[in-house]
Amino acid sequence: MNLSICPRRVVRGALVVTGAALLLTTLAGCSEDKETMASWSAKGGKDQAVTIGKDLTALSQTSYAGSTDPAIAARCQQVLDDVKAAKAFRTLPDETVRRSWEETLDKMEKATTDCLSNAAAGTGGTHLATLFDIESSYRAFADALGYARQQP
Q: In the Cβ-directed half-sphere of 67, how many Cα atoms lie within 13 Å?
């Protein structure tokens, strides 16, 4: 039974982009030390978060089980490079937000490593269940930013 996931991919992509937009609006002032989070955002943190959100969409395009598309490995490698860059970037000043961010990045790193292995074996890219888990972590990260912003 061939179940097309194209409509789901579009919806997931829209959700990720919406999450990234929410992220953009909350990064500037989302900690008790608003200057610190604003500084993190202004010095590239916002760009890192948006890139990772876009990478989720790119990763979802690798989820065709059994696909032998040679572009899968290139997509997965680009996402892995972006994840490594985000991990090497400045540490988030808010501990709760930082933990959520690191969890998202860890899950993406594992998924992209698996994606590269799957692509090399000709068995596709990323599994849908893995994508849902990463998207959930990314949303939790956005929620943590929003919560931190509301704190006095």
A: 17
pLDDT digits (tens, 9 = 90+) for 22-71: 554 454 444 444 557 777 778 898 899 999 999 999 888 887 656 677 78
Q: Is residue 125 part of a domain?
A: yes
Confidence of residue 136 (pLDDT cuts 50, 70, 90): very high
Alpha carbon distances (Å) from 127 to 11, 21, 45, 59? 17, 25, 28, 10
Distance CA 150, CA 110 (A): 32
Count other C-beta atoms under 10 Å from residue 14's C-beta.
Answer: 11
Q: Provide the number of structural domains found in the chain.
A: 1
Does some domain include residue 34? Answer: yes
Residue 1 located in a structural domain: no
CA gap 94, 112 in Å, rounded: 27
Quote the CA–CA distance of 92 and 27 in Å, as a whole number. 11
- What CA–CA distance (Å, rounded) separates 80 from 60? 14
Q: Is this model's pTM higher than 0.85 or not?
A: no
Q: Which structural domain range is residue 141 located in?
A: 6-150
